[in-house]
Structure formats: C-alpha cells, structure tokens
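Tokens in:
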C-alpha cells in the first residue's frame, strides 16, 4: 500500500535498502490497470531486464555477507521513533478514534460498527516549493463499537510530526456505500478532517461523523469557459422545497498526483480532476448548486421544458446515480431555468441583456442532441461545452438583473409607508376610522401594483416579509423616538437640577412632526398651486424612470498595437499565460488579465472540432516525461550506449507548425523531415544533441526515459533559436534552473516530439496557433476564443497585434434628454416656492413675532417640498408603470426598464430635485425672519497685546443684577473639571467695588481654554457697571497669562460666544426659574 515495500522496516527505526527504477513514468501507478497482465500485453518485460540483472547481483552480495551490522556502523533495534542521528525522525504514530452518526432521538452520537477508515498520509512535510510528497491511502476497519486503531500510518523522514486526512464509509454486502462522511451541521466542516500528531505518540482523534446516505456522481465539475477544475469547488446541497442547506451532506473529489517519478516522490502535488461524489440524505428531494465562490457554475434541479423549476433528486440508501454526460445535464438545467425566468421577465415587458445569448444556447443544445443521436461525440462535446459557457453567462446576467430588481424592494418598503401617511393627510385629511382606511387602501393598491409588474417582487421569495418588516419598523419608529425623547427629558431634568439651565434648547421630534403637519395644511389651503407642483414632480419622475437607464455591462475590449517589423504569420496565438510582452505596459497588463494555468485538452479538441475545417491549428506543449524532486532531467540513450542527459524539457509541436512559425525551415537539408499526422513515437533533436549521441543519419533509434523513439529530423540550433513569436519572444519552455523570470530554453536543451505524445506523458498545453485560411476570420475567431473559453487571444494581421480582454462598460442612457426637463422642473418648483413666500409674508411675520427661529420657519416650507417629493415621486413611478404597460401594447419591441436598481436612483434624484428647489426659498425666509445684514454675532473689538476688552449687548436692572451674577457664577462652577468643554475654571471669585461713586460688580476666574495641549491660561473678568439710568451694562475683560498669542485669539472666540449665549438663556428663563437665584444674592465664592 506504499511506494516502497521496505517502509515497514523504516517506520520501525531499522535500516533499509530500496532498489527502484529511476526516471520512469510509472504511468499505471495507483490505477486499476497496475497489474502483470498489462506488462504481458505490452511486451514490457524487456524494459525490466537491466534492472533485474542488477538487483540479483546486489541481493546475492547481501545474502552472502556474514554480518551486516558492522557495515551499518552502529547497532540497530526496532523502536517507535528515532529522534536523531542517521534515519532521524523515522517512525510511526498510533491513532484511535470512533466512527459515529448523529442520533436525532437521543440528541447525541451513536457508534457505527464495521466502518472503513481511509487514511491519506503525506510522506514528510512540504518541500521548499510548498509541494507535498504523497503516498497512497491506507484502509482500516472499525470494530463493533465503531472504534478504529491505526497501528502504523507511515511517516516520512525529516519531520517530527505528520499531517494526515481521513474519511470513513460503510458498505453493504453488495459493495454499495450506505454511510458517507458527514460535512453538515453535526459533522466535520468542509475541507477539514486533517490532523497533525507527533510521531511515536498515541493520538485520539475523537469522533468522526458519518450519516446514512445515497450518492450522486458528477463529472466535469469545472469552469465552464476554461474547463479547468477549480482548486476548491463550492457545493451546496439544499432541500428542494425550502432552498435551505440540509442537515447532513458530504462530498469527495478525485485528484491526480502530478510531478511524480519512480525515483522520488518529492515535488508531487494533488491536482483536482473535476469528478465528485456527493453524499445525500436518503429519501429527501434535493437541489444541488456548485461553483467557485462567488460564481455558480450550474444548478441541478432535474428539470425539463414542461417543468423548468424541476422536481429535484431523490436518492435511496445505498443508491448511486451517475450523471453521465454531465455537461448535458448542466446545460439543460441552466437553460430551462433561465428560459422560464426570461419568459416571466418578457411577460411584463422587460428584456434581459443575455436574451440573444440564451437563444444561441438553445440552438447549440439542439445541435448537440442531434450529434449525440448520430454518435458524433466529438462534435457533441464541442457544442455542449460552448453552450455551457454561453448559458453560464446568461445565468449570471439574469442573476444580476434579478439581484438588481430585488435590491429595490427594501427601498419601496421604506418609502411606501410614509407615502401612505402623507398622501392621506394631503388628499383626504380624515379622522378616526376613515383616516385608517385612507392610509391602508393606497398602501395595498401600490403593493398590488408592484407585485404584478415589478420583477423583484415576482422572483423574490421573501418580499412580503420585507414589506411587513419595514411596516413594523416604521410604525415602531415614532414610539422609539418618543421613548428616546422622554429619556433625554429625564436627563435634561437631572442636568437642570445639578448644573442649572445653561444650555440652549434644541428642536424636538414632536416639533418636527408639527412643522410637517402645518406644511400639509398650507398645501391644502392652496390646492391649485399644490396640484401644479405635484404634477410637475410626477412628470419628472415618470420620465426619469421610463426613459433613462444605467447599465453596467462586462464586454470584450481590444487593444491594437502596430509594429514596424514583419510578423512571422497572420493568425491567432491563444496562450495560457503571457509568453511574450508587446512593446507597451498596457499590452502587458492586458495579457496578464487572461492568464490561467493551462489550456485544457478538451478545450483544444473543441477548437480543433470547430475551426479545424477553416484554419490550420498548431498546439504547443511544455514538460512531461520525468520529474525528479523539483528538477527535471531528460535522458536519451542510443543502442551504442551514448547518453545525453540534461535538465531541459520536452517541447511538443504539431505538423501544422510549418504553417505558423515554420520551424521546419530549421531542419538541416538531407537530415530528416518535419512531423506528419501519423507520427507518434518520433522526435526531432538539435545538431548539438545529435553530435553528443553520435547520430549522423536519420531515422535513428533512441530511448527517451527508457521508451523507444525514432529520431526523424535534426535542426540547426542557430536557425531554430532565431525564430520568434508574434509577441516578440521565443515560445520554448522556460529554464527550470532560473527561479524568477526564467528565459526560454535553447534548442540544445530540448527534445522535440509530437504534441499528442508529449500530452500523453504529462505535458501541459501552453499555446495554440490558429491560422485561418481566410484572413478576414482572424479577429472574429480570436474574439470568440476569448469570450467562450476565457483564454488570452492575440490576433496578428497586417503588422498589427490585437489583444482581447474584458472591461466594464457603464452606460447612462437618457440623461442627455432629461437634463433640460429636470432643470426646468427645479426652476418651476423654485418659482412656486418663491411665490408662496410672497403670498405668506404676513404669516412669516407672525411666526417671527411668536419667537420661531429662522430655521423653524424655513423648515415649514422645506416640509412642503418633502411632502411633494415623497408623494410625487411614488405617483410618478406608478405612472411610469402604467405608461410602460400601455406602450408595450402598441410597440412590443421597445425595451423599458423600470425594475432595476436604477429605479431607486431615479426616484431619489426626483426627490432631491424637489427638495433642492427649496434651498433658495429657505435662505430668503431666514433673511425675512432675521433681516440684519450681520446674521452671526462677532466680538466688536480686537485684542491689544495680551489684553482683550469686549462690550456685551446686555443690561440688567438693580433688582436682577445679583441674580444674573449668581446665574453666571453657577455656569462657571460647572466648568471646574480639569478638561471641561470649551474652558476649565481653576479659581472663581467675586469683587464688588465703587469707582468714582459708580458701583462695579465683577465675576473673576482663572481659566484654561481648549485646546488644552497648547497650555493657554488666562484671567477673565466679567464687569457689570451701573450707568446713570440705574441699569448695569456688561463687558468682558480677558488677560493672557500663558500660551501662544495666535492660538489664544482663535480659541477665545468660542469662549466669548459661550458667555454671550448665557445672557440669551437668562432672557429665556421664566420668573420662577430666575427667582431660584435670589437665594444666592449677595453671596461670594472664592
């Protein structure tokens, strides 16, 4: 079960000698055909003769040695781990655990007896390239209690611990799997199940969960365009009815060991093959999605033309369903699902971007079924992969359109409730039950209209829950705001009790609602003007929704680069990664966009099937044959014993290369020919390799990695190495000895063979040249290659190189025509608002006399704009839906978009335009309420040196002067904290003086002002001086003690304004609130 049978001795800490064939392919290793029977059928015993002769000599020598222990240099004995010295860290680990299943009745796990435990153990750890050295799996069986005991999972050398992966199964007497790995909520999470443990110890793995299951086998779980399996396939197994993940599920993928040779396992890695086994809960109807996050490759619904949403898959215990010709199932499931969704969109007048692509998929699908019935499997495969690539794009476009449509549901759910409330107040203004009816009926009518015509409401499964949720949220909003306002009221009372009434009152939520109510009543008083404004907004919104659209489309872009040098051919170079960079950085960027790991062989076969009749197709391959560790060695031997061994590479070319780069012109005259279609085990070498092997005439027989080949040609290395691609560089494999930016190999380190032969022995298809017989087909074919398979296509024609890549196109349609009507509508609404201001001059004066601030009066007019914006935009949208429905009856070809996320943008634009029309009237109103030219108070004086004296525009009578001083002193006391807001008072005191018979009362403080980091300190004196009329006038005197003067001037402006506002607050207090400060009359703090 391991690469070397001597591993049993190695893990026990004993010495071992391995005899194995170096530089062999071992192409049957780990496969069902790794038997003696195939050696007999292939007459391959002669390949083993040299090795067996050598082995028998070694074995005879070892058996005839009297004592091997002195030769080993030290005594050896079995042990669990050898921690140091020769053979250090060789050993084995012991594992135990239990295989269980979830019992829903006991709500815990119960053991599963007689389960098979499959352990995958890497040989050692990753090498310096991060690749794992892998061994084949080991299989164990549990006892009647579900317990397994792994005696010796093999460990590799040089590592102190081992990482392993484990799976468990139960099979019945017929060999069917009845229990599989559980990756659901009661089992192991996907992509886990690996553990690391120290060699030599006993490790308890705990519980490993399986579940009773059936299984579904998928093939070709790959990217639809490149047909390359993703590194991590995301699989979702859902309940068919609820579309939610099932509790129990599992899946396993197939992998290929790449980079392995018979000499060493170093550098091996696992490559996904695209075949998966999905374990499903029995007797449940399921649907399956798979892809690579965030993209979905296909959905499996088991649908048909008559039932596009499918019936799901229902699998019994132990049953296994094989989706043979899986791509056909993928295409059909996608096609009929997309077909039904497109049909539902077309029924309401919406045309999907990918509709034409969907029709093309239908044609390809019908042709593929005809090809299958005619047993033309190559053509059927090409048609199906092309159809899958196209329908995958259609599904993605429909998904994005549906996502765009459903994204507007929360927007409408949010605005419909305010619309219903405001519309009832504006149109009906009823009370009691009639008011409830007036709110509910418009809301229900609008929801019904959206449910009938809006695709988002049609395809979304939870639209009603969104609507109900927003209704509850909006109706609870006022309650929440009232609670918040009351809570803040309690906090304000506490603040008033401990600090005093030293804060400005702000507008409350109740006042805002009252302003909107007053605005609606004013609109009802002037129905003609309100109707005209409302009609303007309805028309603007209808036009924006109906005749404007914004679309973001991914499309194919091309960049053409001209060159002064003659190109080697006119045709197409399809590459898996940039192998040559044209002259500009833009071209380098575009080439890197399309890079992928390799061109899949099926993609190449599809290209040959589709374009083989109209073009010459020349594939190129790199690599293959043998790999030793992280280095590549190619060994060629002749019957005469001459050897050529090099760390070069295999280079696979095709007979059609004579139509592309014309490598056949490098052949030395009289020394061979180029490849033909029937060549298989044939190679072409350079004159330098031929000299080393002493080959002067062709054909000549050689062995490459021990496999017989015929040398059919010898090329001149100078001519061969001077041939360049249309990208400006050689296309030979990269030098494996150069880790970064490796240069292309010269032909002296290459063995050239037919590309199909190289592909058979592990090579990768890295590029394909397609040279159409008609030059006019070059660019169309290059664009098709890029769009269908996602590979980078470089088209060369008439000394111009065109590179294809993808770009995002943002198209805004209709805005050019809408800008003038929108501007006219804004000006019209602005004119209406200005007219309303002149009509209501007396009302504005009354509001000002009643004490309303400019912002409060302006908000009344802004409230009218807000009501018009909400009501008008929603009515405009409903008008757009009706207009579209009528238009489609007479012009069915027209495509109008009223269901995408653009709708929300259009409606918001109409709302903002309506509200923006009140900007200038709002300013006019505030100026009418406060007509002074200077609307913001500023200190009337400027500082002189370190002193600043500011007169304040307030006076106080003899009866209230002490109350005012006590009020101000209380405010200063509230700022004694070290880093209080605006300023911090360190010392506060009162001074009463008589200057020339005039009383002077002063409140003094030593304070620091923000920013405190600047260290600004000052002495402040607030003076109250009695004049001849007996009133006291106030002034503020500030002296700078410390800190930078410029910052002192800037920071004192908010401080002075804060003192000024305390006088304003004092004026707003009631007599009862002022009387509270009479108790402090005459008191002095210090």
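Residues out:
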């Amino acid at each position: 079960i391991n690469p070397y049978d001597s591993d049993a001795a190695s893990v026990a800490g004993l010495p071992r000698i391995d005899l194995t064939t170096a530089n062999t392919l071992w192409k049957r290793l780990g496969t069902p055909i790794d038997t003696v029977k195939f050696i007999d059928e292939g007459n391959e015993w002669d390949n083993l003769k040299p090795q067996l002769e050598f082995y028998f000599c070694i074995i005879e020598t070892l058996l005839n040695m009297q004592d091997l222990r002195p030769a080993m240099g030290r005594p050896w004995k079995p042990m669990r781990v050898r921690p140091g010295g020769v053979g250090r860290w060789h050993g084995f680990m012991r594992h135990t655990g239990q295989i269980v299943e979830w019992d829903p009745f006991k709500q815990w796990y119960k053991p599963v007896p007689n389960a098979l435990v499959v352990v995958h153990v890497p040989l050692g750890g990753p090498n310096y390239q991060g690749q794992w050295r892998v061994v084949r799996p080991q299989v164990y069986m549990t006892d009647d209690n579900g317990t397994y005991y792994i005696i010796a999972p093999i460990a590799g050398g040089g590592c102190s611990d081992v990482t392993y992966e484990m799976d468990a199964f139960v099979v019945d007497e017929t060999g069917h799997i009845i229990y599989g790995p559980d990756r659901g909520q009661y089992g192991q999470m996907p992509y886990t199940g690996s553990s690391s443990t120290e060699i030599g110890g006993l490790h308890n793995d705990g519980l490993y969960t399986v579940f009773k299951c059936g299984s579904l086998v998928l093939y070709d779980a790959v990217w639809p365009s490149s047909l390359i399996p993703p590194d991590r396939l995301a699989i979702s197994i859902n309940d068919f009815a609820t579309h939610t993940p099932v509790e129990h599920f599992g899946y396993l993928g197939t992998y290929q060991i790449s980079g392995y040779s018979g000499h060493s396992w170093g550098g091996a890695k696992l490559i996904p093959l695209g075949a998966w086994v999905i374990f499903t809960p029995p007797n449940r109807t399921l649907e399956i999605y798979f892809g690579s996050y965030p993209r979905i490759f296909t959905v499996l619904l088991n649908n048909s033309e008559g039932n596009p949403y499918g019936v799901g898959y229902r699998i019994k215990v132990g049953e296994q369903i094989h989706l043979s010709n899986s791509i056909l199932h993928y295409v059909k499931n996608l096609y009929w699902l997309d077909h039904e969704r497109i049909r539902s969109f077309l029924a309401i007048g919406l045309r999907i971007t990918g509709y034409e692509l969907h029709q093309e998929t239908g044609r390809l699908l019908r042709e593929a079924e005809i090809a299958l019935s005619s047993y033309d499997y190559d053509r059927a495969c090409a048609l199906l992969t092309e159809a899958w690539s196209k329908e995958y794009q259609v599904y993605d476009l429909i998904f994005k359109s549906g996502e765009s449509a459903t994204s507007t549901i929360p927007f409408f759910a949010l605005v419909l409730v305010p619309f219903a409330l405001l519309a009832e107040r504006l149109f009906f203004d009823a009370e009691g039950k009639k008011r409830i009816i007036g709110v509910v009926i418009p809301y229900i009518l609008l929801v019904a209209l959206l449910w009938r015509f809006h695709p988002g409401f049609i395809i979304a499964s939870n639209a009603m829950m969104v609507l109900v949720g927003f209704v509850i949220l909006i109706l609870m909003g006022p309650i929440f705001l009232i609670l918040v306002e009351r809570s803040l009221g309690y906090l304000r009372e506490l603040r008033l009790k401990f600090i005093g009434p030293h804060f400005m009152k702000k507008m409350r939520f109740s006042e805002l609602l009252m302003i909107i109510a007053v605005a609606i009543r004013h609109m009802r008083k002037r129905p003609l003007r309100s109707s005209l404004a409302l009609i303007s907004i309805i028309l603007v919104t209808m036009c924006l929704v109906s005749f404007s659209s914004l679309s973001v489309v991914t499309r194919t872009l091309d960049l053409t680069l001209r060159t002064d040098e003659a190109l080697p051919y006119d045709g197409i170079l399809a590459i898996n990664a940039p192998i040559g960079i044209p002259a500009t950085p833009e071209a380098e960027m575009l080439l890197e966009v399309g890079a992928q790991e390799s061109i899949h062989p099926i993609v190449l076969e599809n290209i040959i099937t589709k374009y083989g009749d109209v073009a010459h197709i020349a594939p190129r391959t790199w690599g293959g044959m043998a790999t030793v560790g992280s280095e590549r060695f190619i060994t060629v031997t002749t019957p005469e014993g001459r050897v050529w061994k090099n760390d070069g590479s295999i280079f696979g070319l095709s007979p059609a290369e004579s139509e592309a780069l014309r490598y056949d012109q490098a052949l030395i005259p009289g020394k061979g020919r180029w490849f033909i279609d029937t060549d298989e085990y044939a190679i072409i070498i350079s004159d330098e390799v031929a000299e080393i092997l002493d080959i002067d005439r062709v054909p000549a027989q050689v062995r490459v990695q021990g496999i017989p080949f015929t040398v059919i040609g010898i090329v001149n290395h100078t001519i061969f190495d001077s041939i360049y691609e249309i990208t400006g560089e050689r296309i030979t494999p990269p030098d494996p000895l150069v880790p970064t930016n490796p240069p292309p190999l010269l032909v002296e380190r290459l063995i050239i063979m037919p590309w199909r032969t190289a592909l058979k022995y592990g090579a990768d298809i890295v590029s394909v040249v397609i040279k159409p017989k008609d030059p006019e087909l070059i660019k169309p074919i290059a664009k098709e290659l890029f769009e269908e398979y996602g590979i980078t296509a470089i088209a060369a024609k008439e000394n111009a190189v065109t590179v294809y890549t993808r770009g995002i196109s943002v198209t805004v349609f209709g805005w050019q025509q809408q800008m003038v009507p929108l501007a006219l509508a804004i000006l019209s609404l602005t004119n209406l608002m200005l007219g309303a201001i002149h009509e209501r001059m007396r009302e504005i004066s009354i509001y000002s006399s009643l004490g309303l601030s400019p912002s409060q009066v302006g908000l009344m007019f802004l409230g009218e704009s807000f009501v018009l914006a909400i009501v008008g935009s929603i009515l405009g949208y409903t008008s757009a839906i009706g207009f579209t429905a009528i238009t489609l009856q007479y012009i069915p070809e027209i495509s109008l978009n009223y269901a995408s996320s653009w709708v929300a943008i259009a409606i918001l634009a109409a709302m903002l335009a309506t509200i923006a029309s009140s900007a200038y009237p709002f300013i006019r109103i505030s100026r009418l309420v406060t007509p002074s030219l200077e609307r913001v108070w500023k200190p009337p004086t400027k500082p002189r040196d370190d002193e600043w004296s500011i007169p304040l525009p307030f006076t106080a009578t003899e009866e209230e002067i002490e109350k005012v001083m006590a009020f101000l002193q209380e405010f200063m006391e509230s700022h004694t904290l070290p880093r209080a807001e605006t300023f911090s008072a360190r010392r506060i005191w009162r001074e009463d003086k008589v200057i020339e018979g005039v009383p002077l009362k002063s409140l003094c403080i030593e304070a620091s002002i923000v920013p405190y980091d600047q260290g600004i300190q000052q002495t402040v004196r607030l003076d109250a001086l009695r004049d001849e009329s007996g009133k006291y006038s106030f002034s503020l005197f500030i002296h700078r003690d410390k800190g930078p003067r410029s910052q002192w001037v800037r920071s004192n402006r908010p401080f002075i304004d804060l003192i000024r506002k305390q006088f304003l607050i004092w004026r707003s207090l009631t007599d009862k609130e002022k009387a509270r400060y009479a108790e402090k009359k005459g008191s002095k703090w210090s």
